[in-house]
Each structure stands twice: as C-alpha cells, then as structure tokens.
Design a protein that fits this description.
mainly beta, 2 helices, globular
C-alpha cells in the first residue's frame, strides 16, 4: 500500500518573515491546492499542529488517510476534525454511521470516532469537503451542524464595504470540541473588506479558506506583524495559514466567502488583541 502523502509546513519566526520575498511568503503560508477530483489533499502545519485539507469524492467514496506525520495508527486517534462542504450535496461516513452534509453544512468529528470517508451524492456536482483538524485530549460526539443551526450574526456596514454574515458552527454553545473553533463568513454584494479594523490573538492560530470567488477575482490577504504588514494574492478555494502573531484581514476585488478555523489555548471567539488603524504599517 502506498504511503499517504501530506505536505509539511514548518513554523516561521516573525523576524524571519520580515525578509521573505513573495515566493517564500506564499510557500510558507498559502495553500494553493486543496481540492482535486478523486483525491484527499492534506497539509500538516507545525503552527499549533493544524492539519488542513480538502476531499473531493467523485464516483467512488474517499477514505481519510493516516499519513505518518500524524504519528498514530488512525487519523483520529488523538485528533478531532471539522469539515464544511463548499461543493455539491455530500455524505460523510464516520465509524459506520452516515451523515448527509449539504452545501455549507458542517460536521464535527470527535477523537476516536473511527474511520472517516467522504462521498458525493452526485458525481457530476461533487461535494468539496474542507477539512481542519487539531490535536484533541478528549472524545466528543460527532455532530452535524446544518447552516440554519449555526449561531448567526450580521455585522459591518455597507458604507465601509464590510457588510457580512457570520455563521459560527463549531463553537461553545453550538458544538462541543476540545480546541477546534470553526465558522463561515459571507460578504454581501458590494462589500469587500473582512476583519478590519484587524486584530491578532497570540493564544490561537487561524486558517482562512477563501471561496465563492469569481475565477478572475482575487483577495488581497493582509498578514504579518501589525508594524510589518505583508500581503498574499489569493484565489478562490485557497487557504492561508495565520500564526498567532499575525494579523489576518483582507479585501477582495469582489464579494466572497471565507471559512475561518482556529486552534490553541482557548475557544473564546472574542479573545482578540485589537490593532488601531493608525498603528498599522
């Protein structure tokens, strides 16, 4: 049997990042390829030991592999997993149980839940399961969270081009997890800015998946230390790794959606160190 492949990303110190050119910055922080027909693609980041990936089943189901990098004989032996479907209707099998996961629905899968596989209900309109996994210390039940069961809030203003709807899926009060927090933000037409004024949260790392973006559109994702900002040009269905010391904000050439996921010391959504606009450089 062929050993499952997984891309490894090492931690980059903020003082080193100040000197990165564009290619180096993208190599360390941008995941450009997440969804490929008939494949499970995974990236292991040493930033809080996050695993980021995508599963795109076609005519046949796809089993979540267990690469050597996770260090156990089963992927979920010491991990938890969250997935949000950004494609067509799908189905996820967990330890012999099946869960119907429609577009923009989420599924939380706890430590020790067993084998996981992914299925498209219509191979001509395949599901695209975005995957985030963090280390876990306890087993919690698998929970399906349809988008209408997520904790929902509308924030921002059209005048500042950031009117958006936030749906919190894996978060205390909605779904119990060890450290994983996960949700989806949708910008309204005419709005392009997200998470501005920006912030950092040194106690948690974050990953952004940008999607629902026109093929010719792009997001300028702002990152780096507040006084040493950098940017990445990001296309649809690409993800950005954001260490705790980095801001994470962006502006698009059109409206878009993004999935945010965090792992670290706490699950307090409001735990942010705000950065004044006048302090950005």
């Amino acid at each position: 049997m062929t050993e499952p492949t997984i891309e490894i990303r090492q931690v980059a110190h903020p003082e080193a990042v100040r000197g990165f050119d564009t290619e180096t910055l993208r190599r360390h922080f941008l995941i450009e390829r997440l969804f490929a027909p008939g494949e499970v693609l995974l990236t292991y980041s040493h930033i809080d030991r996050l695993v980021v990936g995508g599963a795109t089943p076609g005519a046949e189901p796809l089993v979540l592999p267990t690469p050597k990098a996770v260090g156990t004989d089963a992927f979920l032996a010491r991990r938890e997993l969250g997935t949000i479907n950004v494609g067509g209707p799908g189905r996820v099998h967990v330890g012999g149980q099946s869960h119907e996961v429609g577009p923009r629905d989420a599924l939380y899968i706890g430590m020790g839940a067993g084998e996981v596989s992914f299925e498209s209900r219509d191979p001509a309109n395949p599901a695209k399961f975005y995957l985030i996994s963090t280390p876990a210390h306890a087993a919690h039940p698998t929970v399906l969270i349809p988008q209408d069961r997520a904790k929902t809030m509308q924030i921002g203003e059209q005048a500042t081009s950031n009117r958006r709807t936030i749906r919190q899926y894996i978060i205390p009060g909605v779904c119990t997890s060890c450290q994983l927090v996960m949700g989806l933000t949708q910008l309204e037409p005419g709005s392009t800015w997200n998470t501005m004024p920006c912030h950092t949260h040194d106690r948690r790392s974050e990953v952004y998946l940008y999607f629902d973006l026109d093929p010719n559109a792009r997001v300028l994702h702002l990152m780096g230390e507040p006084q040493e900002t950098r940017h990445l040009v990001v296309g649809s269905e690409q993800a950005v790794l954001s260490p705790g010391w980095s801001i994470h904000s962006g502006v698009g050439t059109s409206h878009y959606a993004f999935i945010w996921a965090m792992g670290g010391d706490n699950q307090d959504y409001t735990d942010m160190d705000m950065v004044a606009m006048s302090d950005l450089r």
